[in-house]
Design brief:
The protein is built from ten helices and ten strands. The protein is α/β, with parallel strands linked by helices. It has one domain: P-loop containing nucleotide triphosphate hydrolases (Rossmann fold, 3-Layer(aba) Sandwich). InterPro entries: AAA+_ATPase, ABC_branched_ATPase_LivF/BraG, ABC_transporter-like_ATP-bd, ABC_transporter-like_CS, BCAA_Transport_ATP-bd_LivF, P-loop_NTPase. One of its GO terms (molecular function) is ATP hydrolysis activity.
Length: 234
Amino acid sequence: MLEIRDLECGYGPVAALKGVSLDVGEGELVALIGANGAGKSTTLRAISGLVKPKSGSIRFAGQDITGADPAKILSQGVAHCPEGRRVFPYMSVADNLAMGAYLRKDPIRVRQDYDRVYSDFPRLAERRHQAAGTLSGGEQQMLAIGRALMSRPKLVMFDEPSLGLAPTIVEQTLGIIKSIRDGGATVLLVEQNAFAALELCDHAYLIETGRVVRRGLGKELIADPHVRAAYLGG
């Protein structure tokens, strides 16, 4: 479904990605792990059009989306749930969800998706008229996930969904991400908790200083001595 080849991106003179190649198959949950600053978030931002690649290619569902406008990429079925949630704090929960569906032209199905999100996240239903900025961190993460789902994506990208959350909320959030994959969507996950990500995923890539240095099944990377020493506490 997603094919990235020899991707190079940077911020001014600083090279963030140095020839990254990876594949995400339809229906898979693929994890990107690595240290802060390794290039994981830049990879997601390049896929969603927020960072323009210097070279390389990104293909989604057979279409070249390299450097395309973010709205076009979203309309093709790629949703990005960003690091830090990035909800609109002064807008209501309902209006935040509406922003996730702003490109859609099927109001009946949009209404159905509102109901589905509220069913999956009852706390959001209770707070639908509340300003998003007054929600707890866990509730804001639920809202960010719900907003991404409102676009009816084929691929959902999650950037550090557990960051700053209490352990019980982390477990709940990762369970929701697994259920999204089990429901038929494809998932690309960047997650600071490497062990949890590797247990959850089908395949994984380890990125270090802008390069993919390991790839394989989640269980293979859990058993890899380098991964264990550097990211799993030995």
